[in-house]
Each structure stands twice: as structure tokens, then as C-alpha cells.
Amino acid sequence: MAVKNIQELAESFMRTSSEKDFVELYKRIKPGLLNHCKSILIEQDAAEDAVSNTMAKIWTKISQYDPSRGNFSTWVYNIARNESLGIKKNEDRYLPMIHEVVRSNDDSDDSVSVYPSITSSPATLEAEFDYINTENDEMEDLYDNVIEKMKGLPEIYKDILFDREILRMKYQDIADKYGMKKRAIATRIRRARLKVREMFPGVNLTFND
């Protein structure tokens, strides 16, 4: 019997809602999801929590996935990203040190560090937390805008760029997926990135190496 790929496992679980199919799907997608979450959260425990939250949503909301609108991996990786960002935002909110501002010039070595602490007034603490949350929200908005622009790319670029930037697949794995040479994949990804950058003039977009 041929081994089912992730898409086939997901669609099988959609049809049956069986625990057996869910476990098979979980085994196949967990390693990739964990790496994806760790790229955002760094800490293993936090990444494991994000994966657990993601799998819980798959179990309860699989009916919301529409195969006609895209592959399952893209859908679930977006869920994992949102879960990771939610955890990261909560971690940032309660970090003892929120951020440090350093000012320096040629005439002085003076520096100023800003640390919210137990001696800070509630208003000061609230202002610091709002600063961080606003910054995170702006990054999330930019990320979502980039994703939307990527969806509008020509077919020869869109899926390959999603595989590289969202699913973080290796070049060779992408080449194997589409039956193309690795060099051709690299060329398409480079051109796709250029097209996306042209849509955001003045914004320094950073892609996966």
C-alpha cells in the first residue's frame, strides 16, 4: 500500500474524523510544525505548546479547511504561526526587561537603558507594554500583507515561494516536489522574491536564506 502524503492524510481525517487518522496526521506534520514554531519562539517548551494548540485546532476545526482554496500544509502552518505569535506576545508582556535604548555619540559615552520594574508607575509600565504590542501588531500586519501579495503572484512563482518562505522547505525538497532541477527552483524563488519586494517599496523585507 502506498504511503499517504500529508494532504491525503488531512483529507482522510476530514472524511472520517477518526482518532486513528488524526494520530497518523499528527505524526507526519509534527516535526515540521515544531521547527516552524521554534523559528518564532526559540524555546523548545514554548514551541511544543504552540504545536499542541495547533493540533487542538485541527481536531476541532478541520471542517473549516477547504482543499479547493489551498493545500493543507499552508493552512496548518498559518495556524501554527498565529499560535506562536500569540505565545510570543504573552511572553513579551511579562518579560522583566522589555527593551533597552542606547544613545551614544562621538563626544559622550553616556547611555540610557529603559527597564520597566516594580518601582515603575502603572502608567509607565502600560506605556512600555503598549509600545511592544504596537510593534508586534505592525509586524503581524506587514506579514499578512506580504502573504496576500504572494497569493497574487503568477502560478509559476506562488506555490514555490510559499513552500520556501512559509513551509521552510529545503531547495532540494521543493525541486523533488515539482520534478524540477534545484537550480531552476532557486531562480524562480529569486525572481518571486524580487516581485514581492517591488510591491513594498521602501520596506526592507528579509526572506529565508
Write the layout of secondary structure elements.
Blueprint: H1 6-16, H2 19-41, H3 44-61, H4 72-94, H5 122-151, H6 155-165, H7 171-178, H8 182-198
What can be said about this structure in brief?
Helix content is 67%, strand content 0%.
Shape: globular
Number of strands: 0
Averaging pLDDT over every residue, what do you get?
75
CATH fold type of the domain at 1-94 = Rna Polymerase Sigma Factor, Chain: A
In the CATH hierarchy, what is the superfamily of the domain at 1-94?
Answer: RNA polymerase sigma factor, region 2, helix turn helix motif
- Protein structure class: mainly alpha
Low-confidence stretches: 94-135
Order of helices and strands: HHHHHHHH
- For the record, give the distance between the C-alpha atoms at the N and C termini, rounded to a whole number: 37 Å
CATH class of the domain at 1-94: Mainly Alpha
Largest sheet: none
**CA radius of gyration:** 21 Å
How much of the sequence is in beta strands?
under 5%
CATH architectural name of the domain at 1-94: Orthogonal Bundle
Helix % is 55-70%
Which keywords apply here?
Rna Polymerase Sigma Factor, Chain: A, globular, mainly alpha, 209 residues, single chain, 0% strand, 8 helices
Write up this protein:
The protein has 209 residues and is mostly helical. It is built from 8 helices and no strands. Helix 2 packs antiparallel against helix 3 and helix 7 packs across helix 8. The two termini are 37 Å apart.
